[in-house]
Amino acid sequence: MNFHTRPHTFVETVQLIVEDLNRSLSFYQDILGFSVLKEERGVVFLTLDGHNSILSVVQPENAKPKQPRTSGLYHFALLLPNRNELAKVLRHFIDIGYPLQGASDHLVSEALYLADPDGNGIEIYVDRDSNEWKWENGQVEMTTEPLDAKGLLAESDGSTYEGLPKETIMGHLHLHVSDLQEAESFYCEGLGFEVVLRYSNHALFISTGGYHHHLGLNIWNGQGAPAPDKHRAGLKQFTVVYPSAEARDEAAARLGKLGNNVQQLEQSLFVKDPSGTLMELAID
């Protein structure tokens, strides 16, 4: 089942602030296999299929290093089309000696974790068949167990890594927030996502259409974590895509009733969550 097309609402693109544009482009092109699609107003849009951009980077004037203990990006997650592609990525990282921050089996998925040169968290993962996911009382079963790296590599077809495949999409986004209750109200009552897993009292996983999560929200940087200073490396904005203009406008109206300031810029709608993270509300 495809959880990243109509009629679902999902995260489609992520834009990062980076401290050194050339350093970042080297990483995303040479290590992950992106190429430059276009550059507009200082924003470099990256692509894997030559037509669409799921990731973009910008280096503002006076760019500064990532600020710790703030709201914003925990990681963005690139979803691969099949397990063999994940095996090729793992083999690639082993061959070039690129450090991983983790490698996990979440029951619903298998994932590798790393960071770009600015410390922006990245997950590269593959989903297990959704028919294998276990649900109980509307909650999906997820955990964090060590990845069976040997088993993964053993299932590889031996083909050479040539970059992330063109079918790769933005699978989900995981955010640090300052207050979990406020975040739940904004993302669920406002944007229209549903809680699919409560991880104790410090993280939420939310989605539409029965996906294991399109967004993760946590307070691991501390209750009341401030928004990062302007021009700090990290998340600049992301895009939430709705299946229709009507669905998007209904979400905008709900957000307005909750006291959020939704702004229109040309044909686009923008809003910040209670933690100060900017997003565009777009139409598929």
UniProtKB/TrEMBL annotation:
InterPro entries: Glyas_Bleomycin-R_OHBP_Dase, Glyas_Fos-R_dOase_dom, VOC_core. Residues 10-127, 169-284 form the VOC domain. PANTHER family: CATECHOL-2,3-DIOXYGENASE (PTHR43279:SF1). This is VOC family protein. The lineage of its organism: Bacteria, Bacillati, Bacillota, Bacilli, Bacillales.
